[in-house]
Fold this protein.
Amino acid sequence: MSIFRDSLFAGRVALITGGATGIGRGIAEALARHGADVALLSRKAENLAAASAEIESATGRRCLALPADIRNPEAVDAAVIRTIAELGRLDILVNNAAGNFPCASEDLSPNGFGAVVDIDAKGTWHATRSAFRAWMKEHGGRILNISATLHHGGTPGQVHVAAAKAAVDAMTRTLAVEWGPLGVQVNAIAPGPIGDTEGARRLFPGPVADRLRAQVPIRRLGAIEDIASLALFVLSQAGSNLNGAILVSDGGLSLSGRFSVEPEGGPGV
Ligand code: COA
């Protein structure tokens, strides 16, 4: 049972990148449950078809499936144009698509570093630029970037992701100032470890998750629902004075000391 009004996003259209699974899927479904029509962009067509059908049947809202690689700016432009053509407008963009794998920095190839920067940082830019030019410059809008906390300090094995997410934070602040006067507000959520995601399963297998949970002041990992609810808050009227904000949702973990993806007792990951 949601604490938000069912019709909170009625009449609005949201595009969610990486929206077929995990946090993106959670945000998409939450927006649709509160009245928005949504479009999901994802590279994996099979995940996309299933997610879109499930969201439509669970919420009764339209859910457009947009197969595209966020790294391809022309494909992203086409997906944005299609969203506007089929759903009529584009009020909200959620930049959630991301790639991650743990890798000791000395072993990380240029292509490995580049793959994550291309998805997280350049992909965020591709969707942001397209949405602004095709709709938001004229009509205003809200952009929500899904960042992270691992670059707030130093997280071994995550140099590529830290660099990419730092760029996402920089875009959040820069565009908030540059586009605020045009009615486009840009904010970010920085989730800590979210237990029920593919990323967590990769980064925090079994015992690592247990150690991590013990380090979180509230003694639990985050859940997709935590981030989806916060997204509804930020994107609703309740967040209307937020611009350039990067909201940490991690149960206080980043204040508590070390956040590590290293296995116990050894350097690297
Ligand atoms: N350790 C070290 N290097 C790795 C790696 C790993 N676990 N996984 C990928 N790489 C490197 C590859 O070796 C390659 O570099 P190389 O050409 O020098 O060998 C480079 O990254 C690109 O790999 P590739 O598999 O071709 O990329 P991709 O575009 O198919 O995949 C990734 C993108 C790399 C981000 C992949 O991890 C992915 O698709 N992940 C799924 C989404 C995801 O990460 N979800 C969690 C979000 S938090």
User: Anything to note?
Assistant: The chain has one domain: 13-256. The pocket of coenzyme A is lined by residues 98-101, 103, 109, 111-112, 115-116, 119, 198-199 (CB under 6 Å).
